[in-house]
UniProtKB/TrEMBL annotation:
Domain Fe2OG dioxygenase: 85-191
Gene3D superfamilies: q2cbj1_9rhob like domain
GO molecular function, one term: iron ion binding
Single biological process term from Gene Ontology: intracellular iron ion homeostasis
The protein, known as: Fe2OG dioxygenase domain-containing protein
Keyword terms: Dioxygenase, Iron, Metal-binding, Oxidoreductase, Vitamin C
Source species of the chain: Brevifollis gellanilyticus
Superkingdom, taxonomy of origin: Bacteria
Cofactor names: L-ascorbate
Amino acid sequence: MNSLYLARRVFLDEATTMEVVEEMKRCHAAAAPVYGGEKPGGAVNPYIRKVSRLAIAPEISERIKALLMQEKDQLARHFGVELTHCEEPQFLRYETGDFFVMHQDGNTPMVHDHTRFRKVSVSVYLSQQGEPSAPGTYGGGELVLYSHYSAPGERVFEPRGTLVAFRSETTHEVLPITHGERYVIVTWFRSDEPKV
């Protein structure tokens, strides 16, 4: 068992993973915002977070969210927290040069917006790392988790279809993509009541 994260391999089977990626390739893309500022919906800042958020079909988003909710109790037990629901999943595409600097997702006294209720962060890997000559792979773009600022980070290498979960107060980053495209789904499990 890893102390910084939980990996659930084959969270999505190969067929579902490929179906979601093919749908994501057809979706409209817009720059993903950064949360924590004065704007409730966040603001785009390409010096902090450079990645595209994809407008996926609602039925795919709902299907993925239902699968994520099936993991809620196991995640709550593993991390020793109470979880009520997860946010709407974000479907993201990182291209060459894209990144997300060191940050925390929530569950820290330094945060005073809606993200303070985030307890567990989740990434679902949809792409495979590989050499530049390997079709459909990407390079760089590792998720790096830090136990504290002065410690070296732990790079997370997992196969596509894997769900990776970690506490939302964990400092982490996504390193710049060196080649290819990295497709990923992210969401956050929360402790507050869902908004209707």
